[in-house]
Amino acid sequence: MSLDHFIPDTLFGKVELCQVGLGHLSANRKDELFERKVQYYNFLSRPVTVLERSGMQWEFPAIPDVQRASFAIQTEWKIHKDLHREFFAWIKVVRENESKLIRDLREIAARHQPTVYEQYLLFRTERTLSLDDLERYRGEIYDHDHDVVVSLYRGLESGPHPFSEMGRALALLNENATRNEQETFSETIKIVDNTGQFGDRFINRNGNIYRIQGTHDSSREEGVWVIRNKPFENTRLPSTVGWRRYTLQEADELLDLYKTYAEAEHCGDGETKRKQELLAQEERLIRARNELNEQKLAHQKAQHEWELEKTKLQREFERQQAAYADEAYRTKMELERLKAYYERQMYDAKMSQERRKETSEWLKQLPAILGALGVAWLAYKTATVNANKQA
Description:
By secondary structure, the protein is an alpha+beta fold. The protein is 47% helix and 19% strand. It has helices spanning 22-27, 84-91, 100-110, 131-136, 165-179, 248-255, 261-267, 270-390, and strands spanning 34-42, 48-52, 57-60, 71-80, 120-129, 140-143, 148-151, 187-192, 201-205, 208-212, 214-215, 223-228, 244-246. It has a 4-stranded antiparallel beta sheet. Strands 11-8-12-13 form a 4-stranded mixed beta sheet. The chain has a 3-stranded antiparallel beta sheet with strand order 1-4-5. A hairpin with a 4-residue loop joins strand 6 and strand 7 (148-151). The longest helix has 121 residues, at 270-390. It is elongated. The termini are far apart.
């Protein structure tokens, strides 16, 4: 087998996220040809953390069991009958450098004779780790067969998995540490330009110009990767030990990367850089002053508009107040007119009532007056007749 046969540890494919319901899960059982299920059982007296290659970690609480007293990794294999012939043909062939898991699986398969009626073959293997095993290796063991790290540490203190992104970054840091003396400081800048759109960059270090070539690396995400020595604070987390990824868009400014040799030679000069920083500060100051003046003018404009609105509202209020006073005066005059009218009506009614009363009294005296007038007239007629007779 040639060395170029080995497949690199790369990032590939597209991740699709979905939440699978129980009904959908049961419906797909009929199409399953192969299933491998891994289960963990912590029968130790201490919590145990399991770290996967993806970086996920799971903490299993202690379930003390004196009889077992171990951390067990149990794997169940479910193989459909359509795969039986190929599986047995492959498992029977002994190869060099095989893992213990394959050897255990071969031993189980050798004792089993499948029948034509078996729909599935079910195998189970189990790996156990004692507390002494873990403490002998400083509390952490990488299980190659299951590709997981079993750790007695918890949270951020555990791991990382040696082939995770975090683990590979730490491995590179350790590799740099072995190449350098303990007192030295090293910095590694790697440009991962998988699309070929970023290109090479130049840096200026104390007047010396260095070229950093863009490379294609399918195992890393595109960007500028910077790795420095481990600081004193922490030795486990890459985010705090100098490992960091910058996007291609932000790397030029944050890392002082230049597109050409001339730019790096000119802009990398300390005096020129200080002048540029002063000019940038002056520009920021002028920009801030202009923004302040704009805010001041906007405030003055808003205040002037408010004064105009205030005057408009005051005039409208005075107009409404005058209209209200005028309406109140007209209402008052109308009330007084109505009052005078009704008083006149009442006076006329009273006078009519008095006249009716006098007329009634006069009518009552009319017979007596008429009687007196009749007596007087009769006396006058009698006197006249008597006078005529004497004449």
